[in-house]
Amino acid sequence: MHDALAALQARGAHGGPIHAPVTATPVAGGRGLVIGVPLAGNGGDAASTAALLTLRDRILPATLGKVGSISYAVAGDTASTYDDNAAFHSATPLVVAFVVGLAFVLLLAAFRSVAIPLISIGLNLLSVGAAYGLITLIFQDGRLQGLLGYTSFGAIISWVPLFMFVLLFGLSMDYHVFILSRVRELRSRGCSTREALVGGIASSAGVVTSAAVIMVAVFSILATLPIVDTRTLGVGLAAAVLIDATVVRGILLPAAMAVLGERSWYLPRWLRRLGAPAALPEPSGQGDQQSSAEPHVGQVEGRAVERQV
Description:
By secondary structure, this protein is mainly alpha-helical. It folds into two domains: 2-75; 92-287, Multidrug efflux transporter AcrB transmembrane domain (Multidrug efflux transporter AcrB transmembrane fold). The chain is built from ten helices and two strands. The longest helix is centred in the N-terminal third of the chain and has 35 residues, at 77-111. The model is unreliable at 275-279 and 285-309 (pLDDT under 50).
């Protein structure tokens, strides 16, 4: 162990990724050592990250790693920051895939359509992307520092993008499903897709707008707090909800479904065996020709009853 420690101290004395002095402090009654190894850089820049990786992957295995009876680990602020960022980067694709996949399956089962889940997921990702671009412009590039009262350090906190994605996807999907439910309800009564879109969005606009205003107001409070993390989160969430409730749900959603028309409700034959609700009726133009006799008889009978009474 003494030879390994001496070799580590010699590495620090020669300069490079690690610097002198390399210190060793006994702990736990001499059963362990806390070894202090100064790294190149300022502790948070690229030079410090490169020095950390060199220490872990090359220097320690060549010194302490040759002592078979010990175990070691690298701690400290630089190592903790690097490990946290690596954990977020590795988990982000899994989280995104799980959220998007689950949303697709649930929307497919709820609305009996392949196009609607794809449109919904695409629009949600568009809202999240707009929020990412805004916080990058403001907090990473340092715009609006005077207006918001903060000092940019040229980066976004690693946990903010993933947290924003999960929260925004859930919130926007909430009133997105509310709008689509009203559209499908009108479509199930025989309206064409365009008529259902007009009626569904018009009838749900008040509720969606009210919910968006409340969420924007609540998230805007976070932007007034002194911590840069919460300010980033507040600005990003408030802007994303505002964009999502106006541009995305009020313009892009009806535009996309209007372009697709009746193909918005397309479901492959092999998926129809999942045992969901009955198929949607034909639009009003075709449905009237197929079933015009029964409503007419019902109306005549109703008038006859009224006259008899």
